[in-house]
Every structure is written in structure tokens, then in C-alpha cells.
């Protein structure tokens, strides 16, 4: 070979290597053909042999017709990973019986580079394959599912499809029963079998463990759900190697306004969670309304800790008045959450916080705030009134509740008579016992308790008979609306409840007093304390303090 030929050869090999990063087999063939021309060999074959020497792949990379008449081919062997061999067979130039020595040394070099290029190409192919496939089941994966969703969204055909997140039921138990290897087989067979049911443009992708996602035509939904309800899967050759598999699913019938695969995945996952947590439902449909509610829930849950630190939850005071002289006799502390300058009423967030023990943090936050305020009033020479603080039933399981409350009052040196703890009625026996203990415990420390919203629950009578509450807060529903268009019987009942409470030595206060008619009725019934919009709505602290100073 001439010097320029060597140089060309080297350049060519470089090109070949650079190209190996692509999976364009036409270009690679082209490169082999060029090399053949330069090194004048007449053919190249490539084989892969497994550990036992069995042929896995045989590829004719390049072959000239007249090859058959030629001298012996040169063979190159390279060991790859796991004992696999790559074998290259190169046939000599058509018109020569012997290999030219110089040419052989270049050929050695060329084959080595070619092998390197092939290895890289395999890696690229593997990487591409595993980008979209799950190594265990060989089915497509989440990345594939997501790209398909986005592709159909772009093509504006997404509304023809239904998406599902599927979870095989009881797979943990099945693992214990038939072993994890068999379970893996069950999962693979189940997915194989679903895949066989699906059309070209439909997708089943493994998402994790025993979960997968489906993207199917809407009119295919029923038949797929049938399969998910119950299917027999064979995992071995023995007659008994069969299990019945069923699945839970979160389903989203897609609409044209879906914006991205994120929305789809989020929707089917949240619907699947509903199905998994429900005793009756095996399939749950995604409902945008409930999704909005859960979004709101998530927002408040996440923002809560920060709100406490930043004091975004404000304490408002609703005055309580005497119906004898309309004097200010106390107040109820009520939470208001300020989000972006807007006041959020407690009904929007208390039920959410009540699902966990976060509500307990809030109640103590309010209690601390009230204690600090009362201490401030005392220091400024303003005579405090009794302030009631709402305590959720979530506290009933806290064995230290009484101590915790007392400690808080003592920390701010608040005389115990200025705090009242409002607790709601309860219908659960275990809670009833706890409630009784707490009310007794508080009373021992001179802290009074009241039954909030009395009349809303069912255990009312035994509650006030057995638990030493000081105050009964009659629920606003007893009074009916402003014009007293309430049930006659309900008002009769209220009169009796008040009279009974008075007989038991309890004080009564009516909530939701909105009109003079209400006041009249309360006076007739011998209830002389009231709280309601007729007098004041819950007001910010500064406003209340002004009122207190004037009083
Ligand atoms: P609640 O303890 O029964 O508080 C009385 C509720 O009735 C307050 O609603 C008050 O604004 C409302 N109200 C007062 N007067 C009238 C009236 O004349 N007419 C009508 N229609 N309503 C009146 P708010 O402030 O929205 O509180 C609702 C509930 O949220 C409270 O009911 C209480 O159960 C709970 N809550 C508020 N703050 C807290 C807190 O810090 N901790 C706990 N655990 N619960 C709280
Ligand atoms: Mg209350
Ligand atoms: Mg109430």
C-alpha cells in the first residue's frame, strides 16, 4: 500500500468509529465496502457465538460474488461480556491466492476498529431499547407511555383514548404463596396477554412493581376491564400452576383539553389510589371535581407549617354578650387564614387539618396566641374577659392534654378563669370516657369547659348528665333563621334543654343570634348569654381590644 493509502485507511477507520455512535446500518455497510476497496478483501462475515459456542447471529457484511474461489479466510475472535464471542471472517482479494503481509497488518487494525465500532453500536442500541423498555418484562416502560400520550395529544387524537393505571391485587400475598419468581412470570404473562389484546396504537407499559399503565381506545374499555376483573394465568407446566389474578384500576376517559402526559399520569394515579383504598370499588374513574378538592387539600396541608411560622393564621375574636344588659362578657377565638391577602374561613381548612393531628398544632397555636394577648391586656391594665378556644376531638387521644393546656396558661401567667375550652359532643363511647376525664382534669385546675354546637350530635343528654361541663353552647340550628321560621318543636326542645341545663347548674349560651326575635325567645327560655351576628361578627384582634378597653 502507498503512504496516501495508509493515510486514507486511517482516516476511514476514524470515520467508521465516529459513525458507530449511530445505528444507521446502511452507513456502516458503506464503511465496510469502502474499507474492502482499500484493503482489497472480497468479503466480510460476522458471527456471534454464545458461551457454549452456539451461533447467535450471523451477518454477511460484505461479499463479492467471486469469493468462492479464494484462499482461506482470516478469522478474528473477540471475547465480549459473559463469555460471548464475536467472530469476524475476512475473505482475501479475489485475484490473490495468498494474503499480502502488509495488507494483513492493516486488516488486523481495521477489524479491531470495526469490532470496537460494533460494540459501541450495540451499546447504543441497548441504550435505545432500555430507554423505552422495562428490562424484566420486556414490555414498554413509563417513558414510552408518556411519549405516546404526548404524541396523541399533539396529533389531537387523545380524546379517542382511555388511560388506566392498573395494580394487580394482593400481589404481596401471591409472592408469599407461589414465590417471587413465579410471581414475576405471572406479571409477564398477564402483560403479554393484555398486549396481545391491544391494537398497534394501544399501549401497555410497566410503571413499577406490580403496576402498569394502559392507553386504549375508548370502545375497548369494557372488554379490558372484564379482563382486569378476573383472569386465569398459568405460570408453570404443572396442572396446578395456575392463579386467578384481578386488578384495581384508576381510569381517565381522556378529553381533548388534556395538556400533557403529566396530567394523565397524575389523574390515573390519584384515581387508582381511590380504588386501592376503597373496600367496594375495584375501578375508580378520575373526577376533575374531586381532583380539585384534593388539590386544595394538598395545598393547605403543605402550606400549614409555614403559615404557623409566618403567623399567616390570625386569631379573630367574636364577642359574647349578656342579654340582661348587653355587656361584653367574653369572646370566642376563631381562626382565619390569610392567603394572598384573602381571608380564608375555617370551614375551608379545619376539616382538612382535622384529618390528621395537625389540627392539634393549630389549637395550641390559637391557645398560645390568646394567652399572650390576655397577658398583654393585664400588663396594660385592661381587665380581660374570658376567652374560649376550640379544641378538636383529635386531642382526646392525648393523655397529657390537661397538663399541656395548664402549662401553656402558666407559661404566660394567665389566671385560669380567663380561659374556657370548647369541645364538641361525641357519639363514640371511647371518646366519651376520654372527654369526661379531660373535663374533670381541667376543672381541677380551675379551667372551665363548654360543649360546643350542643344539639347537633346524639348523645346530648347523657353527655351533660355525666360530664361536668360548665357551659352549654346551644347550636345555631336550634334558633332557626332570622325570622324564626324554625320548627316549633325544635324551639320547644330548646326551652327544655335550657331549663334542664340550668337545673344541672350549667350556664347556657346561644350561638348564631341574628335578630331581636332570637333574643326574645332566648330570654323567654331563660338563656341570658349570646353570641351572634346581631352583636358582632368575629373581628380582628385590634378591633376587639378597642372594644375591651371601652368596656
Ligand atoms: P364554632 O366553634 O361553632 O364557631 C362559631 C361559628 O359560628 C363561627 O364560624 C362564627 O363565625 C359563626 N357564627 C357566629 N355567629 C353567627 C351568626 O349569628 N350566624 C351565623 N350563621 N354564624 C355565626 P367560623 O368562625 O366560620 O368557624 C366555624 C367553625 O370552625 C367553628 O365553629 C369551629 O368549630 C371551627 N374553628 C374555628 N377556629 C378553630 C380553631 O382554632 N380550632 C378548632 N379546632 N376549630 C376551629
Ligand atoms: Mg366554638
Ligand atoms: Mg359552635
List keywords for this structure.
551 residues, alpha/beta, eight-stranded mixed beta barrel, six-stranded mixed β-sheet, 17 helices, 22 strands, elongated, binds ligand C2E, binds magnesium ion
What is the percent of helical residues?
40-55%
Count of helical segments? 17
Largest sheet descriptor: 8 strands, mixed, barrel
- Tell me the structural class: alpha/beta
C-alpha Rg, in Å?
40 Å
Across the major sheet, the strand order is: 13-14-16-17-18-19-20-21
Work out the number of β strands.
Answer: 22
Approximate shape: elongated
Task: Tell me what portion of residues adopts beta-strand conformation.
Answer: 15-25%
Between the first and last Cα atoms, what is the distance in angstroms?
113 Å
Low-confidence stretches: none
The mean pLDDT is 86
User: What ligands can be seen in this structure?
Assistant: ligand C2E, magnesium ion
Task: Explain this structure.
There is one protein chain. The protein is an alpha/beta fold. The protein is built from 17 helices and 22 strands. The chain has helices spanning 3-19, 25-39, 101-132, 142-154, 171-178, 180-197, 221-229, 261-277, 288-309, 346-354, 358-379, 401-411, 429-444, 460-466, 488-503, 516-524, 541-550, and strands at 43-49, 55-63, 74-79, 85-91, 140-141, 161-168, 203-208, 211-217, 231-234, 242-245, 247-253, 283-285, 313-322, 328-339, 342-344, 386-391, 419-424, 448-454, 471-474, 507-511, 529-531, 539-540. Helix 1 (3-19) packs antiparallel against helix 2 (25-39) and helix 4 crosses helix 8. The mean pLDDT is 86. It binds ligand C2E and magnesium ion (MG) (2 copies). Residues 332, 390, 422, 452 line the site of one magnesium ion.
Amino acid at each position: 500500500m502507498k503512504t496516501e493509502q495508509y493515510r486514507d485507511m486511517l482516516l476511514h477507520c476514524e470515520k467508521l468509529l465516529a459513525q458507530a455512535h449511530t445505528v444507521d446500518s446502511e452507513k456502516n455497510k458503506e464503511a465496510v465496502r469502502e474499507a474492502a476497496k482499500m484493503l482489497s478483501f472480497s468479503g466480510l462475515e460476522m458471527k456471534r457465538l454464545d458461551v457454549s459456542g452456539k451461533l447467535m447471529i450471523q451477518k454477511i457484511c460484505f461479499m463479492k460474488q467471486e469469493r468462492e474461489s479464494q484462499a482461506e479466510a482470516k478469522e478474528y475472535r473477540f471475547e465480549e461480556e459473559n463469555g460471548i464471542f464475536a467472530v469476524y471472517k475476512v475473505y482475501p482479494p479475489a485475484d490473490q491466492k495468498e494474503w499480502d503481509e502488509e495488507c494483513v497488518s492493516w486488516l488486523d487494525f481495521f477489524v479491531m476498529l470495526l469490532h470496537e465500532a460494533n460494540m459501541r453500536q450495540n451499546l447504543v442500541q441497548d441504550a435505545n431499547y432500555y430507554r423505552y423498555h422495562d428490562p424484566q418484562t420486556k414490555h414498554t416502560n413509563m417513558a414510552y407511555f408518556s411519549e405516546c400520550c404526548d404524541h396523541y395529544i399533539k396529533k389531537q387524537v387523545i380524546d379517542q383514548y382511555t388511560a388506566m393505571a392498573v395494580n394487580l391485587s394482593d400481589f404481596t400475598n401471591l409472592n408469599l404463596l407461589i414465590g417471587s419468581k413465579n410471581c414475576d412470570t405471572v406479571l409477564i404473562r398477564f402483560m403479554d396477554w393484555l398486549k396481545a389484546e391491544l391494537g398497534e396504537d394501544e399501549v401497555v407499559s410497566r410503571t413499577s412493581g406490580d403496576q402498569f399503565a394502559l392507553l386504549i381506545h375508548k370502545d375497548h374499555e369494557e372488554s379490558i376491564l372484564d379482563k382486569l376483573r378476573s383472569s386465569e394465568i398459568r405460570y408453570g407446566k404443572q396442572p396446578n400452576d395456575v392463579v386467578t389474578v384481578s386488578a384495581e384500576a384508576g381510569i381517565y376517559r381522556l378529553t381533548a383539553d388534556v395538556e400533557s402526559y403529566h396530567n394523565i399520569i397524575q389523574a390515573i394515579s390519584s384515581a387508582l389510589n381511590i380504588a386501592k383504598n376503597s373496600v367496594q370499588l375495584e375501578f375508580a374513574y378520575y373526577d376533575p371535581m374531586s381532583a380539585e378538592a384534593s388539590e386544595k387539600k394538598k395545598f393547605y396541608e403543605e402550606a400549614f407549617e409555614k403559615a404557623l411560622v409566618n403567623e399567616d393564621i390570625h386569631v379573630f375574636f367574636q364577642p359574647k354578650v349578656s342579654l340582661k344588659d348587653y355587656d361584653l362578657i367574653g369572646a370566642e377565638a376563631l381562626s382565619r387564614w390569610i392567603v394572598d391577602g384573602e381571608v380564608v374561613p375555617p370551614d375551608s381548612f379545619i376539616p382538612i387539618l382535622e384529618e390528621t393531628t395537625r389540627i392539634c398544632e393549630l389549637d395550641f397555636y390559637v391557645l398560645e396566641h390568646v394567652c399572650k394577648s390576655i397577658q398583654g391586656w393585664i400588663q396594660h391594665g385592661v381587665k380581660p374577659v374570658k376567652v374560649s378556644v376550640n379544641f378538636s376531638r383529635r386531642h382526646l387521644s392525648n393523655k397529657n392534654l390537661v397538663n399541656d393546656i395548664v402549662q401553656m396558661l402558666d407559661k404566660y401567667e394567665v389566671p385560669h378563669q380567663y380561659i374556657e375550652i370548647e369541645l364538641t359532643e361525641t357519639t363514640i363511647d371511647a371518646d366519651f370516657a376520654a372527654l369526661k376525664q379531660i373535663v374533670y382534669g381541667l376543672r381541677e385546675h380551675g379551667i372551665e369547659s363548654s360543649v360546643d354546637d350542643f344539639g347537633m350530635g346524639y348523645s346530648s343528654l347523657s353527655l351533660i348528665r355525666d360530664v361536668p361541663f360548665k357551659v352549654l353552647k346551644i347550636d345555631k340550628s336550634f334558633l332557626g333563621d332570622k325570622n324564626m321560621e324554625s320548627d316549633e318543636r325544635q324551639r320547644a326542645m330548646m326551652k327544655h334543654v335550657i331549663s334542664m341545663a340550668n337545673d344541672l347548674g350549667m350556664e347556657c349560651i346561644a350561638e348564631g343570634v341574628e335578630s331581636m326575635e332570637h333574643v326574645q325567645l332566648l330570654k323567654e327560655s331563660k338563656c341570658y348569654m349570646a353570641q351572634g351576628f346581631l352583636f358582632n361578627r368575629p373581628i380582628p384582634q385590634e378591633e376587639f381590644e378597642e372594644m375591651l378597653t371601652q368596656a
